[in-house]
Amino acid sequence: MPFPKKKYIIKYLFEFIVIVVGISVSFWLNEISIDNQNEDERIKVLNSLKMEVNEIRNYCDERLNRWSSDRQILRMFLDADGMRFNVDSLLKLTTSKNSIEFNLIYFRVFDPPMNRYYSVINAGTLKFVKSDKIKEILSRLHNTYFSYVKTTVEYEKLLKEDFVSFLATNHPDIIIAGADNKVSTEKYCNLLYNSINNDKKLKSNLIVLNDYLGTKLTFIRLYINIIDELEYELNNVLK
After folding, report:
1. In 4, 28, 124, 142, which residue has its Cα 20 to 30 A from 225's Cα atom?
2. Would the pTM count as exceeding 0.70?
């Protein structure tokens, strides 16, 4: 009975082919689905990073302006870098004694918004970003250059912690005048300027502080350059 046998062979072969084709199509459709999901995740991650870049840029612009103003005030008291002490010019920068005292004693933190980046890292979704260039820039921004700025802020903090003790011990009149509402900002500025010029230790401490502020400004400008570079790359891949 060769014919029926051949008939069964053809039937089973056809069924086998149907099964293989079905599995292949199913696998292919699944691959397409996974690719689409991966692409959706990629776009989501890139958009999240782009939003955070804008937030970081706004934060850094505010810090840069504030730190630049702080240093400009300090350089006026030191007659440094072509700046000259002038109360009227100082009052254009600030009318607050507290602002001047803050500049001498306290430090301004540097904590740019990085929650989105850390969320991407912790969730492992950075793998969906195909661009090695973007990953490399992210590493430079959030690790290398962030640590540069953060370190200068920490050095400034340590310097000012020692300086507070020095100022309170050797120039209590400055501290008292800063807290006395009856002392005008103009009078306070003149008192501080005269104290600086009559005390070499006080002046040398402020010169060191001025140098730290200059270094801090240099590093935050470099940090902002990396932000611009990252924003450019993100815009390119999201076109």
Report:
1. 124
2. yes
